[in-house]
Structure formats: structure tokens, C-alpha cells
Amino acid sequence: MNAEAEKADRSSSSGALPQKRPYSEEPDNEPRSIEDNESPEDNESAESHRDVAADDEMVRESLSLEITWKGSKKYQLRIPKYATVLSVKVLIEELTEIDSDSQKLLGLVKGKLPKDSDTLVDLGVADGTKIRLVGTRMADRLKALHGHPLRESAENNDVTGISPDIDYPWETDAAGSKRMMERSQVISTDWKPALDKIVQTADIRLMNPPRQGKKLVVLDLDYTLFDCKNISGNVADMARPGLHEFLSAIYPQYDLIIWSQTKWHVVESKITLLGMLTHPLYRITTALDISTMLTVKAVRGGQVMTHQVKPLQFIWTRFPDHYNQENTIHIDDLGRNFALNYQNGLKVKQFKRADTKPRSDKELFRLAAYLLKIAALPSFDGLNHSQWHSYQ
């Protein structure tokens, strides 16, 4: 591997943003797309072979780490050797709920605590290294402080009284088909001033410039593209099957923005570990974190609840010459995130705990076919994305 290629390889697996290509530079190859005469099954079969090859490469370039917490609780990680210490902490946080900012990793390097920006390969971490984790879950801290468990606030946990990864329930209609129950109706009166403040103050880390004439796909990360609770600890298994093929297929028609309900360093670490920032066949325009989300009050089924939403108005206001209500699709596993923009929302099945089942998930292959079918439409306003599986 030459020096330039090795540098790119290291960037794709670290916990920090790689250096951006010059804006004028084109991808090394023309992005692939799903051809009209090629069935989704053909693509799924071809992608399964690519997944195997990618997994083999991941194994060769990865390290196994054994994490011990509280003496008896053990966790296994399989992570790229060029990943940073911060990336290790982010994955540990997903498995243990110990905030990455408060973790101490003993035994990763003898005699000292490494910096978060250090890479495993630069530290000389060996395959099979055993690490002792020191840290306390936030829930345990609150329990010790107040003498009883406390539910986290909506600001930190998305929905008061509702787990962050549980969405509104489904009901079965008379024909036996599942459909989402009554949508929540936002009753907050202060969300517009709050949005204006976010628009004015939020920092957007532009990775690649918007392309003229392209439509926009806004993608959630956890449980949409990334199985953050996969207890196998293997980064290769955490990526939804067909991830890179999906993004490569739709990129010629759509700009790509990632929007995750997590802190920035977590978003950054995950998309870097997944290799989404240096892939030759697509580029990410930007990634947004929880700081650009709004907390709203909504009524649904007579019940008032407080939860966070992803207001697409933020993107439309910051990029008025490129994106608007007519050319944007927001893909997420949580329908409540669409509360301010239901027309633009497309809900997908959760990709969760994939370590308990075969890698047979085909959601992204079917989603790519749908997005390519509608790409030529002048506007998405008349579409019902809840019927995307059956769109002709």
C-alpha cells in the first residue's frame, strides 16, 4: 500500500474526520446505481458477496479487545486497528451506558491513560488486549444521588417516559394490515423561535458542498444504518447490510446528510468507523447531531407527551438554494422524528440486535430501488412515503 492509500485507510477507520478531498475533485469511479433491468434480488445477491469480502478485509485490519467492568461483566469488541481511543469509548458506551466522557480504560497502554485522539495502531495495542473499564452509568449516579431511580429528562432522552428507541405503536386495520396509529399533533407554541435560534447559532460542519440540482436524503444513523446495541461488538456486523451499495446507488441523484440524535463526537466516531467519509463512490454533505433537534409537546390519542424532533426547516433555511420541502426525504426508524414534516418522512424497520439473527435484512436494497424510481419526479409533494414498499 502506498503512503497516500495508507493515509486514506487510516482516516476511514479512526475517530476523527479525515481530510476532505478538494471540492473540485470527482470520485475515483462513477457511482453505481441499480439498473432498471436489474432486480433487487440480483443486487442483494451481489451485495452479499461484497459483504463477505468486506468482512474478510475488516477481520484482517481489526483488533479484538476484551473489556471487563465491575470484575465480572465482560464485553468483546472487534474494531479497526486505526480507530481512536474515543471510538472505542463510544462503542463501550453503547454496550454499557457509561458515558464516554467519564470512562477510564486501564490496560490499553501500560503505565498511562491514552489520549482520546490516539489510534490503537499508534499505541501498539495488540490483538486480544484485555482492558479494565472504570466508570459509572448515569442512571446509577442519579440513583446514588437521589436514593431512587430517576427517568432522564426529554432533553437527554428524547421522550418523557418513553425509551429512546421505542416508537409510536402500530394498529391493525380491518383488512389485517398494519398501519401507524394516529399521528401526534404538535401543540407547542414556542418551537418556531427555538428553531430560529438553532438556525442562527448551530455550527454546520460541511464535509462536501451541496450539488446543484440534486435532491436530498436525510438519514438517521442508529437503528437505521447502524446497529448500536449489537452486543457482538463487531463493527462489521453493526453496519446494515448493503449500506455502502445503497449510498453509492442513490448518490448520483441525491445529496446525503446524516442526522443522529447523539452528541457530535459520537456521530463522528460512528460514521468514521463505518467508512462513510472516505468511500470512493459517494460523499456525505454534512452530519448533524442532537444540538440541531427541537423539543416539542404533542398530543396523540388524547395523551400529551414531550419528545424531540428533527426539523427539516433547519436544513432548508441553512441551504435555501439547494433543498426544500419538495425535494427532501427524511429516512428514520422513529416516526415521531417526522412530527414537523410528516410529508417528508419515510419510516424504515429498525435494524436492531442483528447479532441475534442471520444477516438477512434487505431494507436498504428495497429502499434504493424506491428512491431511484422517484428520483426523476419534479416534486415529492404528492407522494405517500408510508406506501414506499408497494410503489410502482
The major pleated sheet works out as:
5 strands, parallel
CATH class of the largest domain: Alpha Beta
Shape: globular
| Average of per-residue pLDDT values | 80
The structure class reads alpha/beta
What is the CA–CA distance across the termini? 46 Å
What's the number of domains?
A: 2
**Over the alpha carbons, how many angstroms does the gyration radius reach?**
21 Å
Pfam families: NIF (PF03031), ubiquitin (PF00240)
Organism: Coemansia asiatica
GO molecular function, one term: metal ion binding
Domain FCP1 homology: 210-374
Could you characterize the architecture of this molecule?
This protein is an alpha/beta fold and 392 residues long. The protein folds into 2 domains: 62-140, Ubiquitin-like (UB roll), CATH 3.10.20.90; 170-390, Rossmann fold, CATH 3.40.50. It has 12 helices and 14 strands. β5 (170-172) and β6 form a beta hairpin. The relative contact order is 0.15. Mean pLDDT is 80; it is low at 1-42, 51-56 and 152-181.
